Amino acid sequence: MSAYRELLRGKLPEKEFALLPRSFDVIGDIAIIELPRELAKRVKIIGAAIMESLHNVKVVAVEQGSHTGKYRRQKLRIIAGEKRLETVHKESGMVLGLEVQKCYFSPRLGSERLRIAGLVKQDEKLLVVGSGVGPYPLIIAKHSKASQVVGVEINPVAHKFAVQNVIKNKLQGRVICIKGDVSKLSEGEFDRIVMAIPHEGVSLVPSILRLLKKGGFLHVLDFTEESDIDAPSRKLVELCKENNRKCKILATIKAGQPGVRRYRVCIDAKVS
Ligand SMILES: C[S@@+](CC[C@H](N)C(=O)[O-])C[C@H]1O[C@@H](n2cnc3c(N)ncnc32)[C@H](O)[C@@H]1O
Question: For the chain, which terminal residue's Cβ has fewer other Cβ atoms within 10 angstroms, N or C?
Fold first, then answer.
């Protein structure tokens, strides 16, 4: 992925060359890169180099800030290629249609999704909270013997893509998508709940405990500092206790490094 840098060697002053990122995300055929301010005047040549180095990339977009708001959306600016932000991404045998500026999706969570699918037992009923365009529900349904996976998503655009993605992947019936706020979900009793909203993390758990069977499993994404990796799991145990549930932490898995000495973690727990 850093092959584009070689194409730019000698074409940029050394100081600027040193600032070129060594990696970026590719979602479907769209490359999304974060550039420092110092390279703002070089976007054209950088975009062209990415297109030249990766023949499957048809659009290059540059990040305009980080993910924000309840829907976790990110502003992007197209710097090379076609003028569109809709694409189809392939992950673990599933096809996922999405619009990258209107819906959150991270290809970096692919192995974490497969890890959770591998923990699911036969006939389990699962809930995925913050299911976006459907990657967790679809990949869990495809790679496990779950009887049903329900996804709940508040962003109407992401929900619309999730519904289409279920049909595209022929998983109607086994994957159900619900549009709305999880705190309003009144029905359901699940063997396992995946909470994919790390910026809210464990603090959202009290609003879903009523939906988790006694002895059920929880997987909660959260952010934490390297100096205190276990802070979210301690908080999770406390929150369960306050809600008269007993929580046993099974594992804290590092699932990405969004900043220096900062991790995205997934806490696996059994709640009785
Ligand atoms: C970090 S994204 C994860 C999306 C998806 N699971 C993925 O991995 O691509 C979090 C998602 O949670 C949704 N969300 C935030 N609060 C929510 C709530 N209260 N109920 C349902 N969905 C919510 C956002 O709209 C967003 O799509």
Answer: C
- Is 0.90 topped by the overall pTM? yes
104 close to ligand 1 (CB < 6 Angstrom): yes
Here the tokens at position 160 are: 């619309």
Number of structural domains in the chain: 2
| Domain limits for position 110 | 105-271
Asked, for residue 92, whether it belongs to a domain, the answer is no
Are residues 156 and 61 located together in one domain of the fold?
no
CA of 45 to the centre of ligand 1 (A): 35
Interval between CA 238 and ligand 1 midpoint (Å): 24
In tens, the pLDDT along 155-197 reads 999 999 999 999 999 999 999 999 999 999 987 899 999 999 9
Bridge partners for 59 per DSSP: 30, 81
Query: Is there a contact between 127 and 188 (Cβ–Cβ < 8 Å)?
Result: yes
270 Cβ contact list (under 8 Å, min separation 6): 215, 216, 217, 218, 247, 248, 250
d(CA 16, CA 252): 38
Looking at the structure, tell me whether residues 24 and 152 fall in a common domain: no
Whether residue 48 sits in one domain with residue 115: no
Would you give the DSSP letter of residue 259?
A: B
Residue 130 CA, closest ligand 1 atom number: 12
Torsion, CA 155, CA 144, CA 265, CA 179, rounded to 10: 10
What band does 201 get if pLDDT is binned at 50, 70 and 90? very high
Which CATH number does the domain housing residue 119 bear?
Answer: 3.40.50.150
